[in-house]
Amino acid sequence: MLRLPRLTATGAIVDASGRPTSAYQLWWEQFARAIEQSFADIVAVNERQDELLERLIGVAEDLSRALDAVRKAQATADAARASAEDAGASASNAQGTANAASGATASLEQRVAALEAQGSEGGG
Predict the structure, then answer these.
(1) Looking at the whole model, is its pTM more than 0.70?
(2) If we measure between CA atoms, which residue out of 29, 30, 25 comes closest to residue 11?
(3) Could you count the other beta carbons within 10 Å of the beta carbon of residue 27?
């Protein structure tokens, strides 16, 4: 708030020769200083606001970069999870194939044993 000094109503503004009185000159100096100081305060506040705005913009840019990094990390994690799921499915398929091959091998071994048994009965 701008607080300007008040000129007293009882004081003369000019002397008998029409020149400003000492009281008026003193008041005018105080009045002008108060305006100048208020202006200087406003300039200082504006400069501080500019500094804070620059810092805020810097923080916002840092947050934006951090958010981009988080998004990239999430995308990498999603891709890794998908790869792990694919690997799990491939392993399951491979296990099924191995189980089928094992079953086929056992079946062949039983047939071979049966044929060998028949051959030894028939040939002996």
Answers:
(1) no
(2) 25
(3) 19
**Residues sharing a CB contact under 8 Å with residue 90, sequence separation 6 or more, in sequence order:** none
- CB neighbour burial string for 45-78, b if at least 16 within 10 angstroms, e if fewer: eeeeeeeeeeeeeeeeeeeeeeeeeeeeeeeeee
What would the pLDDT profile of 1-17 be if each residue is shown by its tens digit?
778 888 877 778 899 99
The closest alpha carbon to 24, from 34, 39, 38, 10, belongs to: 10
Residue type, 55: R
Q: What is d(CA 19, CA 92) in angstroms, rounded to the nearest whole number? A: 107
For 49-116, give the DSSP string.
HHHHHHHHHHHHHHHHHHHHHHHHHHHHHHHHHHHHHHHHHHHHHHHHHHHHHHHHHHHHHHHHHHHH
Q: Which residues contact 23 (CB under 8 A, 6 or more apart)?
A: 8, 11, 12
Q: Collapse the DSSP code of 6 into the 3-class scheme (helix H, G, I; strand E, B; otherwise coil) and give the result.
A: coil
* Whole-number Å distance between alpha carbons of 63 and 75: 18
